Amino acid sequence: ARRPSLVGGPERALGATELASAVAAAPTFGSARLLAELGTLCSERGEFVEALALLRQAKRAHEVLGTLGKPEGTELLLRLGAVHVAAGDAALAARAFAEARDLCELTSRIATPQGAQVLTCIGEAKLSQGDAAGAAEAFAEAYRIRDIMGQSEAPETAALLTNIGDARRAQGFANRALGDYEEALAVLARLDGLEGPAAVRLLTSVGAARCDIGDFLGAERALDMARRLQGRLRSSAPGVVGKVVEGCCSIDAVGTMGGFLGAGARKNSELVDQLEDKLAAARASALHRTSL
User: Fold this and answer.
1) 111: Cβ–Cβ under 8 A, 6 or more apart, which residues?
2) pLDDT digits (tens, 9 = 90+) for 247-272
3) Which of 86, 97, 179, 274 could form a disulfide with 251 if both were Cys (CB 3.0 to 4.6 A apart)?
């Protein structure tokens, strides 16, 4: 659905506080949806406290209506978790994603594209908390669902393969991770997606894995490709840089997080900077070892 055009901020434009009070008194499915949209818009502006308040009110409305277990309720929980991610609270994000998973399992919707999306979010939350093994397990289950659903050739699957590689690399299996990244690159190539933001993220992961195995030349090549692609995306269409593929938990995911314009650009820039720092540190360490 098209979002309302906001002038002067979401709360002033549409009276979000008044709407929240009205919903509390007599919730409807439409008002719950509007609260969720307003919460998403607040989060896009970096107003996370306001966003969380609106999304929680929308959740209470769904609970009263008995619709939290429906797909719309699951989407709301994913949005709520995404705002917690953006606000830096991985533990609360993981709780929201776990609730979404429990509801999907309760309503026999876990083996669906949305169920795979929920599992992907859980995996990313676990990875951010340092639980690489748990993340790998969640990602593998999400991949299995998408494969059964015939979605092996989809942008979401390429992002999921990147996630799987990141989890393996976090466990110390950089060579296996490179295999996942190569598979993800092949999927993007077949989908003509090698010039999109998802490719920037993937290239930084390739560079990090190359760095881990001591292939500094390969890491530098991946970093250069990611940096050049990021520059082209910025100069050609600034708005599209914030759009990554659906199915990722972090705030740069369009479908799960409802947009968050520009968040993908910021995240990818951070990844490029992190790879530059990692490569510089690895080279300095290698130079120090050879000088001993």
Assistant:
1) 145, 148, 149
2) 344 433 333 333 332 345 567 788 88
3) 86
Smallest CA-to-CA distance from 52 within 6, 85, 4, 15 is with: 85
Average pLDDT, the chain: 83
Going by C-beta distance under 8 Å and a sequence separation of 6 or more, which residues neighbour residue 278?
A: 208, 211
CA distance 237 to 258: 19
Is the sign of the CA dihedral 3, 102, 80, 146 positive or negative?
negative
Cα 125 to Cα 25, 208, 257: the distances in Å are: 34, 20, 14
The DSSP symbol for 261 reads T
- pLDDT given for residue 78 in this prediction: 96
Burial of 278 (0-12, 13-18, 19+ CB in 10 A): middle
117 in Cβ contact with 258 (< 8 Å): no
- What are the C-alpha distances in Å from 149 to residues 102, 108, 181, 189? 21, 15, 22, 21
Pull the structure tokens for residue 104: 């999907």
Distance CA 79, CA 264 (A): 16
Q: Classify 189 in phi/psi space as left (phi over 0), alpha (psi -120 to 50) or beta.
A: alpha
- 103-126: per-residue pLDDT in tens? 999 999 999 999 999 999 999 999
Hey, what are 21's tokens? 């009070």
- From the list 67, 47, 71, the residue with the least C-alpha distance to 59 is 67
